[in-house]
Amino acid sequence: MFLDLEADRYFCLSQRAEAAFRASAGLAAAGEQDEALLSLRQCGLLISTSDDSRPAACRSVAVPAKSHLDGIETGAPVRLKMAALRDLAATRLALRWLSLNAVLCRLAQQKSRAATGLSTEHVTAPDVAAAFDWSSAIVRSHDRCLPRSIAVAHRLARCGISADLVVGVSLNPFAAHSWVQCGSALVNDRPDGVRHFTPILVI
Fold first, then answer.
1. 11-58 residue pLDDT tens
2. Which of 75, 160, 62, 67 is nearest to 110 (CA)?
3. Which phi and psi (to 5°) does residue 168 adopt?
4. Angle between helical axes of 34-42 and 15-24 (0-180°, round to 10)
5. Interatomic CA distance for residues 125 and 108, integer angstroms
6. What are phi and psi of 194, to 5 degrees?
């Protein structure tokens, strides 16, 4: 399963094309796949290089073992609740006017800046989890996992908290889901909600 960020779509390969791709990535033995490899190059899924580079799989993440949602005992600070609402509105607007790829690139840049800077905000991941959990009573959260997860990831980055945005899929039937986790702790979901999805993108 692939996620085309430029076109904002998921797609699968044919059995022959998948075999060729796995062989090119070193995941399977090479066979007579010249025609299939040519097709993958023509559609831009593979490119020719001058070295021995191979397609890289999705970066691995820790298996979620717990959720910060289960540790909420007190409400989040009012300022953080307001920030969550602003983040959700800004993310929805960004996804309306920009491509998914552009939005995710902005998130990656935000995370990079956060990793090299010092945050003056004394906020924890459970605080962020509580704020966005509170916001779900005001802003619809059902079937909005991607914009909500992007907003959560941005807030964590602004607070200097290391976290990963994960996009996962399941097959038969097809379904996609996204969430944010700090190590093995989920921020905006619970282990039962993500265990059936295989990560295909981690930012």
1. 777 777 777 776 766 554 555 556 666 667 766 666 777 777 666 668
2. 160
3. -130, 160
4. 90
5. 18
6. -120, -10
Residues with Cβ within 8 Å of 167's Cβ and at least 6 positions away in sequence, in order, are 3, 146, 176, 177, 178, 199, 200, 201, 202
Phi, psi of 108 (to 5 degrees): -60, -40
Q: Which amino acid is at 61?
A: V
Radius of gyration (C-alpha) of the chain in whole angstroms:
19
The owner of tokens 């191979």 is 54
28: nearest Cα among 54, 61, 60: 54
> 11 Cβ partners below 8 Å, 6+ apart?
1, 2, 4
User: What per-residue confidence (pLDDT) applies to 8?
Assistant: 81
**3-class DSSP string for the chain:** CEEECCCCEEECCCHHHHHHHHHHCCCCCCCCCHHHHHHHHHCCCCCCCCCCCCCCCCCCCCCCCEEHHHHCCCCCCHHHHHHHHHHHHHHHHHHHHCCHHHHHHHHHHHHHHHHHCCCCCCCCHHHHHHHHHHHCCCCCCCCCHHHHHHHHHHHHHHCCCCCEEEEEEECCCCEEEEEEEECCEECCCCHHHHCCCEEEEEC
The CA distance from 65 to 91, in Å, is 28
- Nearest CA to 126 out of 67, 60, 40 is that of 67
